[in-house]
């Protein structure tokens, strides 16, 4: 048995690898997506005051901190029995929109685009963001401008550009000033113009997508606001692989649908449906579930998308195009929120006084998919149990099976070329996994110690 390793997988957030096992005939016996990082937030949150969770959990990740911040805040709303006032809720929604703008722009233009605009067969020294900047400097500049807007929006609403801290039980701790609203609105309009211009590039991918690339068939989970795309509020819908509705959940009843488990080759948790079968989350899932995006330009793009893929799709590479449609919608929503002068109102928080419930579950959509924060607390509000289910864990099965599917196609006579390895990476990259968010493991976690003879290394 021969082992082929791809490590690290490039152009993703965090560190992961792929192990491919080839038999004596040169054929792939098995292959796995492997993560060996561990971040123990579910454990060291125990004993903390639950109101600290919205300030601690953003440190899980520097790419999607707002999602953890807001999911934790929604959970603490339930524990203290408080609902944010309208302005406070709108500020939270705007904060999440800013993260979608920032994260989706980062992935599409800087992580995925080199494969499509430069070519997945190009040499690796060219197939990266530097190569993209050389080939299409205007695209790179505009992508940076949009990301800057996302960061500025996070800073203005959340208090910090990286790890926001303004959301707390019952709402927000600081209002948005009129001067910042006006400045951000100008940036939002510029970002929307860039998103519209970029669609002329993104839409060209519609005709080039290999629908069998990284093939896997699953059910889907994602939030919906009565059929309209949403990232903050709504009900999590469960859609079967054939498009049939299986059910929905909105709080702790998620445990009726989702089962978490572990596999020996990875520290990354897996998730599946308790009714049987596996599911995916994220842009593809959300577009499969909703009827409309709820904004003009994104709905126009969605119509084009559905001409190619239908109302529901299993196509892995369609994640990239679905993500861009969400990017357009997020820019449109940012303009809408910031055009409303009422968002600078001062009524932003309902004071939280005492524990009203011993358990709180916050569910939102992070850029990569449905995010669940589940806290159980003592009478004094100290965390006794914490469970975090992030999108990358829920997509873990699909990435793992997609990796093996592609490996069987591209490994020839026991050999893996660099361009073939990149095709395997493209399967993983389509999901935009965030490894830092996802490595909260269950099951056995053996420590491996490697001993080397220094004399043999010389």
TrEMBL record:
**Binding positions for Fe cation per the UniProt entry:** 64, 437
The name of this protein is: F420-nonreducing hydrogenase
Q: Which InterPro entries match?
A: Ni-dep_hyd_lsu (IPR001501), Ni-dep_hyd_lsu_Ni_BS (IPR018194), NiFe-Hase_large (IPR029014)
Q: Which co-factor is required?
A: Ni(2+); Fe cation
Query: Which positions does UniProt annotate for Mg(2+) binding?
Result: 42, 388, 440
Q: Which family is this protein grouped under?
A: Belongs to the [NiFe]/[NiFeSe] hydrogenase large subunit family.
Q: Which UniProt keywords apply?
A: Iron, Magnesium, Metal-binding, Nickel, Oxidoreductase
Q: Note the superkingdom of the native organism.
A: Archaea
Q: Which organism is it from?
A: Methanoculleus taiwanensis
Q: Which GO terms describe its molecular function?
A: ferredoxin hydrogenase activity; nickel cation binding
Annotated binding of Ni(2+), by residue: 61, 64, 434
Which spans are transmembrane here? none
Stored Gene3D superfamilies? Cytochrome-c3 Hydrogenase, chain B
Q: Which SUPFAM superfamilies match?
A: HydB/Nqo4-like (SSF56762)
């Amino acid at each position: 048995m021969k082992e082929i390793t791809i490590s690290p997988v490039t152009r993703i957030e965090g560190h992961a690898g792929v192990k491919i096992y080839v038999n004596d005939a040169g054929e792939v016996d098995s292959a796995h997506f492997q993560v060996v990082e561990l971040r123990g937030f579910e454990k060291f949150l125990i004993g903390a005051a639950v109101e600290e969770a919205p300030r601690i959990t953003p440190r899980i990740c520097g790419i999607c901190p707002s999602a953890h911040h807001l999911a934790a805040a929604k959970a603490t709303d339930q524990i203290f029995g408080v609902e944010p006032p309208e302005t406070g809720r709108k500020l939270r929604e705007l904060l999440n929109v800013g993260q979608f703008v920032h994260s989706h722009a980062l992935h599409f233009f800087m992580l995925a685009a080199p494969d499509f605009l430069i070519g997945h067969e190009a040499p690796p020294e060219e197939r990266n963001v530097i190569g993209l900047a050389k080939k299409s400097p205007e695209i790179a500049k505009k992508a940076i401008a949009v990301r800057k807007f996302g960061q500025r929006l996070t800073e203005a609403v959340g208090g910090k550009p990286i790890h926001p801290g303004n959301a707390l039980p019952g709402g927000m701790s600081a209002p948005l000033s009129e001067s910042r609203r006006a400045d951000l609105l100008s940036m939002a309009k510029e970002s929307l113009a860039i998103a519209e211009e970029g669609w002329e590039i993104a839409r060209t991918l519609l005709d080039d997508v290999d629908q069998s690339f990284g093939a896997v068939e699953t059910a889907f989970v994602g939030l919906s606001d009565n059929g309209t795309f949403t990232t903050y509020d709504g009900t999590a819908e469960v859609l079967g692989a054939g498009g049939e509705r299986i059910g929905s959940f909105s709080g702790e009843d998620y445990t009726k649908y989702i089962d978490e488990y572990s596999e020996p080759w990875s520290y990354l948790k897996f998730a599946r449906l308790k009714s049987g079968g596996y599911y995916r989350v994220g842009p593809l899932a959300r577009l499969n579930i909703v009827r409309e995006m709820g904004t003009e330009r994104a709905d126009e793009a969605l119509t084009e998308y559905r001409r190619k893929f239908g109302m529901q799709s299993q196509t892995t590479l369609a994640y990239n195009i679905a993500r861009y449609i969400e990017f357009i919608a997020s820019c449109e929503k940012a303009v809408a929120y910031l055009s409303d002068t009422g968002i600078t109102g001062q009524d932003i928080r309902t004071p939280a006084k005492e524990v009203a419930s011993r358990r709180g579950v916050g569910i939102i959509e992070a850029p990569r998919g449905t995010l669940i924060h589940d806290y159980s607390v003592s009478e004094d509000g100290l965390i006794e149990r914490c469970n975090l289910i992030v999108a990358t864990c829920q997509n873990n099965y699909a990435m793992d099976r997609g990796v093996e599917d592609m490996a069987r196609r591209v490994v020839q006579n026991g050999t893996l070329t660099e361009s073939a390895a990149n095709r395997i990476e493209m399967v993983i990259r389509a999901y935009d996994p965030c490894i830092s968010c996802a490595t909260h493991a269950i099951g056995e976690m053996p420590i491996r110690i490697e001993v080397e003879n220094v004399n043999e290394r010389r």
